[in-house]
Structures are given as structure tokens and as C-alpha cells.
Design brief:
alpha+beta, 2 domains, seven-stranded mixed beta sheet, five-stranded mixed beta sheet, 23 strands, globular, binds glycyl-adenosine-5'-phosphate
């Protein structure tokens, strides 16, 4: 099944619920629109994707460090950043059927696409959620819930640079929740009001920004390919002048071909010194980077790579979903890369008696901890394989009488059902090579 097949979304939503990847939030009360809970397998998959990104963006770069800034910040942050005035979508309502649209996503000069009723004039709608800090709900206590993680990095950048003794060029990476009161959330976890971003802000000397933009564009696309996303489902889209966010001079989206069309998974932006200059202006604090070696001081330019963790997860699910026939029986499998699969290995004893079950259990315990494993002794072996295929487990390890006698087990590969015999005492290094290599 192709990632662009339109009924793939329905199948994925159903699989995600049935197998414990993703549930509707507050389901017993009828659910809360566009809010989702990640179940036992969903949270493993999400954590693996986050870990892979973190390793790629921090551990592999001496000059990129991490930060975990607070979600709630001073309201001045959002005034300076331009979000209070500029983070708006044009909203139109149908006067007949009450459908709501983003005016820039339909032809707002024409009648309602759903019922042909009359549409209201577009109104500007700010996407930031507001709340109050403290017991009084007055304007003085009003704050915003961050719509991007980036600003926490900008306001802390000199503290990070000084404490980590970094020199331009350097980066600060962060993973965290962001919130947007989207007019049209939808497509399962693709567009939601609460989501997680994985952002890296790279601080460079003005004048070198174009070169760094090219560098990060290439690195990020290469990352998705290396992670196993099919190249024909990936492309770049450059923002035209009308599309650019208020802070960006240049922007490229990494797009994926979802079942509902080509859509953004990650934005790579040249934010110039827009944000630092704005914070310097409103706070009155100097935000210059000082290069004492060269006797220079300047506001660095920022190249940002900003991806959504939930969208990344949806992309991996769409790309991995397959249907085929094995031994004349149809099966569903998720061909997830082993590094991100929620369960790395399953241990399946062929029989429980004569010590085979105990040996399998011991093997399972030996391998668990470093990798997420699953032990299953219930039902026919074919059915157990199918259960593991459907959640993307790359390796099923079967334990049998030969295991007791010869000290070997069978590894059955998910994608082509190939089987190979491996010595039990070499199993850890066998998995290690494939997971960490
Ligand atoms: N700091 C820059 C920034 O926030 P963006 O293009 O608005 O840029 C970056 O968002 C990424 O965050 C997007 O590529 C997408 O993956 C994710 N994202 C944005 N809005 C989202 C939403 N409502 N639901 C899920 N993910 C979202």
C-alpha cells in the first residue's frame, strides 16, 4: 500500500487505536477535538524518534547543546517576537452551516464549499492560547502558552553560550510542547492544538547565513533519507513572498507525501537577527555575541530547523504501512526502521514444557532493559508473528528444543520472513550491531 493511498489514514487510525499507539483524548466523554493520547506503543515510538533526533542534532555535533526552557514565559517575549501582532490566521465562517475555514485555504470570495451559503468577511484570529498566572484573572496576569519552542532559546542564548563556552557558529537544541489554537486542526495527529516540536537554532556570523542555510537544508533532508523514509515521498518546498512567516527571510519546508497530499514536516528558516534584535529592543538588554579573539561584537543570524515530533511519527507510520500475503494469508506490517520500532525484539517459545519456556523467559530478561522487548507464549506461532508484524517488531526470536541442546535460537525477520539460526550467547551483539551500528 502506497503512503499516498487515500484509505491509508482510516486503516492507520484504526490500527493505532487497536494496538495501543494512539487514542482519542477524553474518549469516555466523547473525545476532545484534535487532542490525542499516546498509548504504550505510541509513547515508545515517539520516544525513539525524539532520541534519534536528539542524537543526530546534539551528540553528533560538538558545537550544539541542549536546553529545556519553560513553556510559560513573560508576555513581553511574545510581544517582541511579533506573535502578539503577527501570529494570526484569517478566519471566515459560513452564515448558513456554521462551518469555519482559514480564508487563505479556500477561495473566500466564493460561497461556502460545504453548503454554498454566504461566508463572513475574513477576521484575523490570533493562534496563541492565553491563560493567567496567579489567582487574579486580570490583564496584568495574562500570559501566553508558547506557540513555538524557539523563543526560549533566543532569550537564553547568551546564558547558554557563556556557560557552555561556545563560539559562533554554534547551536542550541530543544524538544518540547507547543500550543496553537488552530482554526482547522485535523488529519489525525497531523495538525493539532497541542504538539511537540524538535527545534535547533544555529547562531552564525551575519554574511555566512546563506551558506549555513544550504548546509542545514542538505543535512536535514539527508537525515530523513538515512532514517529510511522513501526518497520519492520527500521533497523541498520553498516559501514564496506571500507564505513567509513574519520572522523569516528565507524558508524551505521538508515535505512528505501524506495520503492527504504533500505537507510540511519540518521548516528550515533563515530568521536573520530578527528575534534577537527584537528582544534587545524591548528588554533593553544587550544581546550581542562578543568574539574577544577577533575583537568583534555582533548580533548573530539564526538558521532554524524546526520539526514536529507528532508529524514525524505520522510520516513514519504512513511510510511503513504495508499489506502483503504470506503463506496464502494476508498480513499487515509496519516496516519501521529497527531503531524507531516500539518493540525491538519478541521472544516466542515454541513450547512451554521441558524447560523451553523457562529458557525463553531467561533470554527475554537478559535482552530487556537496553531495548524494549516483548514475551509472548500464547497461540500458534504464525499468529504470534502476525501480531508482531502489525506493530513493526523487526525481529522475532523463537526458542525451541534445539535451543536447549545446541544453544541456538531462530531469528525471523519481519519484512521478508527470512529465518536464521544464531547462537544465544551472540544474540546481544547481533542486536547491538543492528541497533547501534
Ligand atoms: N519555530 C518555527 C516554527 O514553529 P512552524 O513551521 O510554524 O515553525 C514547525 O512549525 C513545525 O512544527 C512544523 O513543520 C510542524 O512539523 C510542526 N507543527 C506546527 N504546527 C503544528 C500543529 N498545529 N500540529 C502539529 N505539528 C505542528
Amino acid at each position: 500500500m502506497e503512503a499516498k493511498s487515500p484509505d491509508l489514514m482510516e486503516k492507520l487510525v484504526s490500527l493505532c487505536k487497536r494496538r495501543g499507539f494512539i487514542f482519542q483524548s477524553s474518549e469516555i466523554y466523547g473525545g476532545l477535538a484534535s487532542c490525542w493520547d499516546y498509548g504504550p506503543l505510541g509513547v515508545e515510538l515517539k520516544n525513539n524518534l525524539q532520541r534519534a533526533w536528539w542524537t543526530e542534532m546534539t551528540r553528533r555535533h560538538e558545537n550544539i547543546v541542549g536546553l529545556d526552557a519553560s513553556i510559560l514565559m513573560r508576555p513581553e517575549v511574545w510581544r517582541a517576537s511579533g506573535h502578539v501582532d503577527g501570529f494570526v490566521d484569517p478566519l471566515v465562517d459560513c452564515k448558513e452551516c456554521r462551518s469555519r475555514f482559514r480564508a487563505d485555504q479556500i477561495d473566500a470570495t466564493k460561497p461556502c464549499p460545504n453548503c454554498s451559503g454566504e461566508l463572513t468577511e475574513p477576521r484575523q484570529f490570533n493562534l496563541m492560547f492565553r491563560t493567567h498566572l496567579g489567582p487574579l484573572e486580570d490583564t496584568a496576569s495574562q500570559i501566553y502558552i508558547r506557540p513555538e519552542t524557539a523563543q526560549g532559546i533566543y532569550v537564553d542564548y547568551l546564558l547558554v553560550q557563556n556557560s557552555a563556552r561556545l563560539q559562533v557558529p554554534f547551536g542550541i537544541a530543544q524538544v518540547g510542547k507547543a500550543f496553537r489554537n488552530e482554526i482547522k486542526p485535523g488529519n489525525f495527529i497531523f495538525r493539532t492544538c497541542e504538539f511537540e516540536q524538535m527545534e535547533m537554532q544555529f547562531f552564525v556570523k551575519p554574511g555566512t547565513d546563506d551558506e549555513w542555510m544550504g548546509h542545514w537544508k542538505e543535512k536535514r533532508m539527508d537525515y530523513y533519507r538515512r532514517m529510511g523514509i522513501r526518497p520519492e515521498n520527500l521533497r523541498f518546498h520553498q516559501h514564496g513572498p506571500g507564505e513567509l512567516a513574519h520572522y523569516a527571510r528565507e524558508a524551505w519546508d521538508v515535505e512528505y507525501q501524506f495520503p492527504f497530499g504533500w505537507q510540511e514536516v519540518e521548516g528550515i528558516h533563515n530568521r536573520t537577527d530578527f528575534d534577537l534584535k527584537a528582544h534587545q529592543g524591548l528588554s533593553g538588554k544587550k544581546m550581542d555575541y562578543i568574539d574577544s579573539g577577533k575583537g568583534e561584537r555582533y548580533l548573530p543570524f539564526i538558521i532554524e530547523t524546526s520539526s514536529g515530533l507528532n508529524r514525524t511519527l505520522l510520516m513514519f507510520l504512513c511510510d511503513a504501512y504495508r499489506e502483503d500475503v504470506v503463506d496464502e494469508e494476508p498480513r499487515v506490517l509496519l516496516a519501521l526502521p529497527p531503531k524507531v520500532a516500539p518493540i525491538t525484539f519478541a521472544v516466542l517459545p515454541l513450547v512451554k514444557k521441558d524447560g523451553v519456556g523457562d529458557l525463553a523467559r531467561q533470554l527475554f530478561e537478559d535482552l530487556s532493559g537496553r531495548w524494549n522487548g516483548f514475551y509472548d507464549h500464547a497461540g500458534a506461532i504464525g499468529r504470534r508473528y502476525r501480531r508482531m508484524d502489525e506493530v513493526g517488531t523487526p525481529w522475532c526470536i523463537t526458542v525451541d528444543y534445539e535451543s536447549k541442546e545446541q544453544g541456538t535460537v531462530t531469528i525471523r525477520h519481519r519484512d521478508d520472513c527470512r529465518q536464521e539460526r544464531v547462537k544465544m550467547d551472540q544474540l546481544k551483539s547481533w542486536i547491538f550491531e543492528r541497533m547501534e551500528g
